[in-house]
Specification:
The chain is α+β, with helices and mostly antiparallel strands. Helices cover about 20% and strands about 30% of the residues. A hairpin with a 6-residue loop joins strand 3 and strand 4. The protein is elongated and about 75 Å long. The two termini are about 40 Å apart.
């Protein structure tokens, strides 16, 4: 019997689901085309919702010897229980469509469009994310198709070309959701500005007024392309999202995985300790709030490791103070550590720094990240890598 452990594994690695991932993609794309024709926003492919939908599609076939057609299962119960078990924790609205049999993607979408209840689910303007589950048993051809839809107010996704799997040209259209405002310490308000880039450091990118739709050009060539969108509210607080698309004819089967095409729910870092140390949060005019945020220089573990360094007041710094390392011999070094669990997937370390003199081509700063016994970096930053002296610049690792 399947239990909650089923959701702890990425079902994209299962051969039985690998065979259906293109069909899942086609259903999502066809759904988005229908929504756009109706004047609605497209949906972002979500991994947790997909894991829940995949599990239910499998369970509806293999867990019911006499057949099953409905929305309840024998392990979790209802849709809300399944998506919660899969890790989708902040759903404000949810719905589910099923086909009690194996059909092609276009036939599934057409059938839902002709059914009033399923149509209302697919065309619900509240939803922002979608998951798909396809399953067919080889022995007798019995199958099931599941579409799970939901809305998480803490996540405002970006969607490339209505979540098409591929594009033959680098010119694409982005749909960018706006936050409706958050509760709690981070408290981001709806975005006023946005910044878009083809790589996560946003090198050379400029802030522009926020808009929900934007024409964009991907990096040339062929392969998977990622577009990163950073938004910030009226107080300068920002967050970042991304989406992927394959530029070219067809991605390889090995590269077409759920981890590649779908976003994952990210946990929000608990800021309680930071709030106790820094009560003047209103002055954080450029703080970078990120999903799955682990730690920063306000953490108790941040300290001088070697050489000379000290905290100094700096109005241009986040929190209006920064840690200055002296250019002495031997080298001055600072470090920090975090014992928080780092979820699987890509993570970015951001370093916001400045130098007094940017005229030298000699390495001024080295940064690295150690996780278990593996080192990422070092990232060698020359003084000349800074656009101007005494101005903060961000570097990503």
């Amino acid at each position: 019997m399947f239990g909650s452990q089923a959701f702890a594994q990425d079902s994209a690695q299962s051969p039985s689901f690998d065979a259906f991932i293109r069909k899942e993609a086609d259903v999502i794309y066809e759904t988005n085309l229908k929504r756009r024709q109706d004047g609605l926003a497209p949906l972002r492919w979500n991994a947790e919702l997909t894991n829940a939908a995949r599990w239910f599609a499998y369970h509806a076939v293999e867990g019911h010897p006499n057949g099953h057609c409905g929305h309840n299962d024998l392990v979790y119960g209802e849709l809300t229980d399944r998506i919660t078990a899969a890790g989708y924790d902040h759903a404000q609205a949810w719905g589910e469509n099923v086909v009690c049999g194996y059909v092609d993607p276009k036939d599934a979408v057409d059938a839902w469009m002709k059914s009033p209840g399923h149509h209302d689910n697919m065309m619900n303007p509240a939803y922002r994310e979608v998951g798909l589950g396809y399953y067919q048993r080889e022995s007798d051809g019995r199958g099931y198709v599941v579409q799970d839809l939901a809305y998480d107010k803490y996540y405002a996704p970006v969607i490339i070309e209505n979540e098409a799997l591929t594009t033959s040209v680098p010119e694409v259209t982005l749909y960018i959701y706006n936050l409706e405002g958050k509760d709690g310490f981070d408290g981001l308000a709806p975005a006023k500005e946005m910044m878009i880039a083809n790589e996560p450091s946003f090198a050379g990118a400029q802030w522009e007024p926020f808009s929900t739709e934007k024409k964009w050009t991907l990096d040339a060539g062929e392969g998977w392309r990622t577009v990163y969108v950073k938004t910030r509210d009226g107080l300068g607080r920002s967050t970042m999202v991304h989406d992927t698309i394959y530029l070219g004819a067809e991605p390889s089967a090995e590269s077409l995985t759920l981890a590649q095409v779908a976003t994952r729910v990210k946990t929000i870092f608990d800021y309680d300790d930071i709030e106790k140390q820094r009560t003047d949060a209103a002055n954080w005019n450029q703080v970078q709030f990120s999903s799955a945020w682990l730690a920063d220089d306000s953490s108790p573990s941040f300290q001088l490791l070697q050489g000379n360094g000290q905290w100094v007041s700096d109005d241009a710094a986040i929190g209006r103070q920064s840690f200055r390392l002296a250019a002495d011999q031997p080298l001055s070094r600072a470090w920090m550590w975090s014992g928080n669990f780092l979820p699987a997937g890509t993570a970015y370390a951001y370093f916001r720094m400045k130098v007094a003199n940017n005229q030298s081509d000699v390495t001024a700063i080295k940064v690295r990240v150690d996780i278990d016994n593996k080192t990422y970096g070092p990232l060698d930053i020359k003084a000349s890598d800074f656009a101007a002296p005494n101005q903060y610049q961000e570097f990503a690792l």
